[in-house]
Each structure stands twice: as structure tokens, then as C-alpha cells.
Amino acid sequence: MSNTLPKIAWIGLGIMGSPMSENLIKAGYDVTGYTLEREKLDRLTAAGGTAAASVAEAVRGADVIITMVPASPQVEAVAYGPDGILDNARSGALLIDMSSITPQTSVDLARAARDKGVRVLDAPVSGGEAGAVEAVLSIMVGGEQADFDEARPVFEALGRTIVLCGPHGSGQTVKAANQLIVAVNIQACAEAVVFLEKSGVDLGAALDVLNGGLAGSTVLTRKKDNFLNRDFLPGFRIDLHHKDMGIVTDAARTVGAALPVGAVVAQLVASLRAQGDGGLDHSALLRAVERLSGARL
């Protein structure tokens, strides 16, 4: 039976990209992927995808091209230049960038792509590694309604909450707000954990009851075990949250929005990186609070 679903090229098979691309394969899509690490390509082929030797090879002939890379410089590196997406994608292809980058990078990419006949959506996600694996991500999208409607079946294989937020760049703006809320929330939880432990309270019991009331949150649900077990295996690295806090503080300054608490948490994230914790999960904000409270880590 011939596959009538659009052919997908996937660029970037990291913590998020690998499980997301595999969910598309499970949904019946023909996925050709490219990433820098050989073992990630092997994982893709083991899941039923096809490995490409370059960005250009991956995108040639694809109907939909999805990028999931760390930051704006990597998006620009894979999109532009003779070996990049725009010079090798077919006219009429749909490029969906699911990376978390600056809103301006998304706006510029959409403009450059239009000249090549390529349509673009910015579609960053929230939900972390668990949300990617379980295909329950929240997907915030910027771009044209018609392109969003066309991409919806692809998004539905990846996430549960899928919303067009406005024109190009809007998805990234909403993602920046998401990262602000998540960082402040993790910081508040981390402070509560240290306060509770120093007070001699049963931490597991305390977090259970807190999570059942107004203090409850997806952050507390997802990160409770990280706090309890001091397990900071990265689902979302401090390094990447540091990048995102830079995006939201810069964008807020541009539009004239004050982020007083966000600015403090951005500095705490930066301090964790400076102490060598950049590769840990963002729940490791707990380590910063512990250090401030006298622990020698």
C-alpha cells in the first residue's frame, strides 16, 4: 500500500527530537532524519526511519521539514547556505521549526523562506522529555492559518494542546512566556523543598498535599521525584533554560515589559551554569537554593 501521508524530513534528534520523530513513524509517516550524532541516526533507523548523510539529503523531496535544534544559531546553520534547508527544499514545502529560539529569528526565517517558495511555521513545544515520549506536548504555533491547518495532523501525532497563537514569531513569544513561568515555578518549589527539609517535615507527604491544592502544578507533578531523589538526569538542561531566560528577558525589554522576579531567576539559572551544573535538569535549581542555605555540594 502506498503511503499518502506527507514525507517528513526531521533535522535534530536530541532529547526531544528522537522520541518526537519516533511518534511520527508510529503514526505511519515516512521520516528521513539528520543529526550530528551517529548513534541517534542508528536509533532512528531502528525505529523504522531513514538516516540521511546531510541536511540537504534529508530535505530533498520532503513535503514537511521539521527542525528541533538547541537555539537560534543552530536553526540558522541548518536553514541557510548552499547545504541548508532553504536551498535544497522543494518549492511549496512546509518548514516547521519546533526549536525554542528568539521570535525575531522566526520572523526572519519566514521572510527568507518566502523568497524560496517555502512556507514556515514556528512551533515550539512545552512538556519536556516525558511529554515528547508520551506525545502529550503543548505546541504553540506562529504563522498562517492555512499552513497551521495543513500541519495539524502532524502536530496531533506529537502533542495534545495545539494552538495557533498569531503570526510568525508568536509561537516563540508564547514559548518564552512558558519558560519564564516554568523557571519561576521550579525556583519556588526548590525554595519550598529546602524550607520543608530544614524544618524536619516529611518531604514526600508535604509535596503530595501541596500538589493537591492551589500550590499544585504540572511542574511539581513532573519534578517531584527529581526533588525527592536529587535526581537531576536531564529532561531539560539548565544550559537550555539559561538560553530561554535570555530570550524572554531580551524580548521583554524590547516590548517594555518588566520581569522583576524573572530577572532574579534568570540570574540563579546563570549561577548554576557558572558552578558547572549546566548539563543537569532544570530541577537542579534546588542545588542553588541548597548552596545559598549552607549546603556544601
Write the layout of secondary structure elements.
Elements: E1 8-11, H1 17-26, E2 31-34, H2 38-46, E3 50-51, H3 55-59, E4 64-67, H4 72-79, H5 85-88, E5 94-97, H6 103-114, E6 119-122, E7 125-126, H7 128-134, E8 137-142, H8 145-156, E9 159-166, H9 170-198, H10 203-211, H11 218-229, H12 238-255, H13 260-274, H14 285-292
Parallel strand pairs: 1-2, 1-4, 2-3, 4-5, 5-6, 8-9
Antiparallel strand pairs: 7-8
Helix pairs in contact: 9-11, 9-12, 9-13, 9-14, 10-11, 12-13
Pfam family, one: NAD_binding_11
EC number: 1.1.1.60
GO molecular function, one term: 2-hydroxy-3-oxopropionate reductase activity
Describe the protein.
With 297 residues, the chain is an alpha/beta fold. It has 14 helices and nine strands. It has a six-stranded parallel sheet with strand order 3-2-1-4-5-6, with helices on both faces. A three-stranded mixed sheet has the order 7-8-9. The longest helix has 29 residues, at 170-198. The model has no long low-confidence stretch (mean pLDDT 97). Its EC number is 1.1.1.60.
Using the CA coordinates, give the radius of gyration.
20 Å
Q: Can you tell me the residue ranges where pLDDT is under 50 for at least 5 consecutive residues? A: none
**Order of helix and strand elements from N to C terminus:** EHEHEHEHHEHEEHEHEHHHHHH
| Shape annotation | globular
What is the number of E strands?
9
The N- to C-terminal Cα distance equals 58 Å
Proportion of residues in extended strands: 5-15%
Mean pLDDT: 97
Pfam family, one: NAD_binding_2
EC number: 1.1.1.60
GO molecular function: 2-hydroxy-3-oxopropionate reductase activity
Keywords: NAD, Oxidoreductase
